[in-house]
């Protein structure tokens, strides 16, 4: 079995991590998307669906499906409820990530795109056996502005969402590579290309 290199890709909410993830895919690189895995759980996992309804009640449903906006309105304002959600979701998400790593075992380089890489239980993070962590960074005001525009919410609602995540200064300390997304997309892509060259990818 080939010994592959694993790079964790993370960032604060609305910093541009998905833009980097998409760019890596366009280059033909292997990217495991934790958000996509999470969405699949909501859409296709009956056990997950049942556990969430048991904990949060049928008021989070719309047409029989979990309304993520309704659920988000609960957990983003209540850390205890957020912890409940994460305790249900994280074991399932990381089990699927490990399956994907196994499936991609012959890839030389695997990127694992996880928004809350630093917020999850340390044992989950260690299980990934990451060689490096890339962090996509944007200044706080720009981050809030992008989130407000992207989700169609007020800046106050954006601020509440952002407060559920670890302070970006702490994330910078814990990361190996910082990708600055405070200019245009070409500026961001150039940094990604430079890092890929360091990994032997042209």
Question: CATH class, anyone?
Answer: Alpha Beta
Distance between the termini: 24 Å
Mean pLDDT across all amino acids: 93
Proportion of residues in extended strands: 5-15%
Q: What do we call the CATH homologous superfamily?
A: P-loop containing nucleotide triphosphate hydrolases
Quick rundown:
The chain has 202 residues and is α/β, with parallel strands linked by helices.
Structure notes:
The protein has 202 residues and is an alpha/beta fold. The chain has one domain: P-loop containing nucleotide triphosphate hydrolases (Rossmann fold, 3-Layer(aba) Sandwich). The chain is 56% helix and 15% strand. The protein is built from 10 helices and 7 strands. A hairpin with a 2-residue loop joins β3 and β4. The mean pLDDT is 93.
